[in-house]
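Example with several molecule types.
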Amino acid sequence: MMESNSQDWDMLIQKHLDGLTTEEEANALSARIVEDAEVRLRYLKAAQVHGALADETLVLDVESESEVKAAAPELQKVIGRFDWPRQVAAGLAAGMFVGLLGVGMIWAIGSPKAEARVFDIAHGDFESMAEGPTPTQFPVRFGEWAGNPAEVVKEASGNKVLRFVRTANVKGDSDGFASNCSVFQLVDLSALRRQLKVEQSQAQYSLELSARFRRAPAPSDAELHKPKASLRIFLFNAEPESIGEAWPRAVQMAEALGKKSIKPEPGDDAATISTSCILDSDATVALIAVAASAGFNSKTSIPLGGYFVDDVQLTVIKQPKLPVQVVSR
Amino acid sequence: MDHQNNHERFTRLLLEAEPVMLRSILVIVPNRTDARDILQETAVALWRQFDSYDPQRPFVNWAMGFARIETRRFLARAQRRAQLSEKAMAALEREMDGDSGFEGEVERHLATCMQKLGEKQRRLIQGYYHEGRSPQWLAKQGSRSVEAVYKAIQRTRIDLQTCIQRQIRKEII
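Resulting structure tokens for the full complex:
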């Protein structure tokens, strides 16, 4: 055992996690954990995966996302798929509304090989929105911010931002988790895909979502354990209203997804984070979500205090197709 | 009334801290039934001492001290399974206190990585973890040996761990 390689240690660690090690093996593993930082770290990582799987209440950024079971056949009935003509029609109507048909687009060259096209998603900077609460429901239309309790507020500088007010369960499920405050927007992709000719293109497209988060000190800070702000993007081939109907199980049907989070301290400078996913699927709708979470699982609503988000932006990045696909389902 | 308020406050704080406590206990005592027993004992100890809790401190930090004591008590009593040595447990706890940040990453990427599993692997993990099926039951259902089920679960966990690490690297790049 002393001369074993890391794979052998991994298997022994796994064996121990299932309670199958002998006294002798447990002693050997113990000695190695004490003397070898690498094995110690490997043990911790394996145990944390085991712990996360064993924790049935683990909330994976979205309330009850972890409860989503592999119920694909049932879900297919819930999420209706567009036929092609309806994709185009819906894309034309909604794309014009959201501004995805070319208005306000800026091309930027990030490198000789990549090009970035920035979209002004609807109310991404919140400036054109009225001050006050956003709708507390899952959005059903393209181009509106809605979700858990949040409000548009004006800062002393006159800049408008979105404040996350409190955590809640967006579906109003009294048995569901209310661990985060997520505010969503549905973005139409069909018009964009047609314009970019994604299907025929020799290039690879990805969508990058970015936003700037800030956390100000608040009286409720002591109540929060490792609170975090997060950004998520899900791509669906579905009718927009069906995503809300099937939420959070709809996550299981996402064609692609990207997530990013940060844990800002009260009073830290504002920080911009981004996440991306590849647009090579037949996705017709992007669901974007900005969120602040309490950092622990809770079925009761928790005030979030001073969490703010601003400058939510969606960028399409075009680059030559690579022989190896970096992101996939 | 005060007692009632105190109890409600305790219940709320405990509910919020439980997942973190459970996952930390599972590092030292991987058996889920045992870990939940320890969690139960910890909850009783916490309630007994709740008057001494300083609300200025995060509840979870206070509670974790109790969880460690109850874990040691449990291990002193239980002889059913081979255990890690005291030195190894202390080394792991020190490492956890240092917080490599991986726990947060697991939380963040587990859903994505679960989706990347094959259907059989996902069903196995759901049966073992979420439905609480025994490896014996799973073996019978899948017409294979118990040992093969354990091996499959272990390989799947390694796959998930690798996937999570890959997701982290991808973000760094």
